[in-house]
Amino acid sequence: MAEVRIMTGICLVLAALTAVGQTAPSPTLTLREVYQLAEQNYPLIKDAAFIDKIEDVSLESIQRSGLPQISLNGVGQVQSENITIPLGENVLEAPTETYNLYVGVNYDLYDGGAKKAQRNIETASANVERKSLDVQLRRTKERVNNLVFAISLARKQKQILQTSRDDLDTNIATLQAGYENGVVLESEVAKLKVRQLELASEIIKTDGNIDTYFALLGQLTGRVFPRDIQIDMPKEYPPFQLNEVSRPEQELFNNQKRLFEAQESSISARTRPKISLFAQGGIGYPNPLNFADFSTAPYGLGGIKLNWNLIDFGKGNLDKQRLQLQQEQVEVDRELFLFDVNSEAKEYQEKIATLEAQIENDETIVQFQQEILDQSQVQLDNGVINSNDYVTQVNATINAEQQLEFNRIQLEQTIIDYLTLLGQL
Q: Could you count the other beta carbons within 10 Å of the beta carbon of residue 171?
């Protein structure tokens, strides 16, 4: 039943907003367009480009690490003694000084999937950062909602005040004519003029509030909005369940788990055998490959190399266990997030139902107050009541109308905030 009332409220709000949009030839923006402007203007959005660039650079670096590695190496050493080879009466002594300058080349034929795992880690890490950015940018929607509905409420208040001031103009003219004919005291006219000035002051104050809200909205979006702009609420929604949550936090949790899974694959790759080709060529003294050649000589060699870490004393299993525990922790975080959102959603549902009941009651109050005000105006014209009584009723009617409009806008904002909470906006 509560969900039916909420859907009914949404339809009524959207219908009302549509009607207003049809009668007002003013510039318009949709609420989603204001969201986009706020997100694009928010300084944090610059991080998105850096995330992409960092990912591209990291992936390119990993790709280039698979190319042959070429290095220039040099070794020179002096030792206290070296081998001696007796040759009859002579002794051949190897030099105690050795020098070697060579170029080395290494190329991985099979790395056990280490590079692929590292690429997956970089991509998963970038996706985590992207969704984390989306989560932070989502907060701009709440700020937009508050400012948009503050403007809407201030506009309604100004409209009510202006209508009341216009009514006072008519009554002041009537009493002024009575004063000129000697049937109304000048003080009665003065009392209405005082209230007229008070209403003018309240209108000025409301205009100032509207200017402040527009300035804050302009700062948030980086745009200057005309004062008559209309913000259209969404008129159509895709089919959704009222309690269905579609927030960027959920995808953030998924991406965090993918990152841990990629790190787990990297651990597995670390334990696989690795095969590489190597080559070395240079010049050495004495000849590094011919121990009997004590002259400076060029040389070269090459081959294939196997590297396999057979025993890591359980370190890999412990690292995997840590990652599995972190994945379980992510699920706990997800559960806590959904619990909090659902709890807040229930509060919104109750608030929506309460506001609907209040609005129904306020509409009746405004109707009665308006009827009393109409009667008071007739009584004022006929001299049955004085200006004080009439002003009191004017204030009561204004307060009732303002309370009604306040609750209506509160209902609109609560519905929008509710849909924003669920991630439907």
A: 21
Tokens of 79: 């030792």
CB 314 within 8 Å of CB 215: no
Q: Is 77 helix (H, G, I), strand (E, B) or coil?
A: strand
pTM, 2 dp: 0.77
> What Cα–Cα distance (Å) separates residue 324 from each residue in 194, 267, 278, 317, 400?
74, 12, 38, 10, 60
Closest listed residue to residue 155, CA positions, set 225, 222, 221 = 225
pLDDT per position as a tens digit, 325-363: 999 999 999 999 999 998 988 898 899 889 999 999 999
Query: β-pairing, 97-110 with 274-285?
Result: antiparallel
pLDDT digits (tens, 9 = 90+) for 292-317: 788 889 999 999 999 888 887 888 88
Structure tokens at 373: 């005000």
DSSP per residue, 119-146: HHHHHHHHHHHHHHHHHHHTHHHHHHHH
Q: Give dist(CA 237, CA 242) in Å, integer.
A: 12
First vs last Cα of the chain: how many Å apart?
Answer: 23
Handedness of CA 174, 178, 183, 189 (dihedral sign): positive
**Residue at 102: amino acid letter:** Y
According to DSSP, residue 246 is labeled -
Structural domains of the chain ordered from first start: 2-66+111-273+308-422 (1.20.1600.10)
Give exposure, 279-311, as e/b (b: 16+ Cβ within 10 Å): bbebebbbbbeeeeeeeeeebeeeeeeeeeeee
226, 211 in Cβ contact below 8 A? no
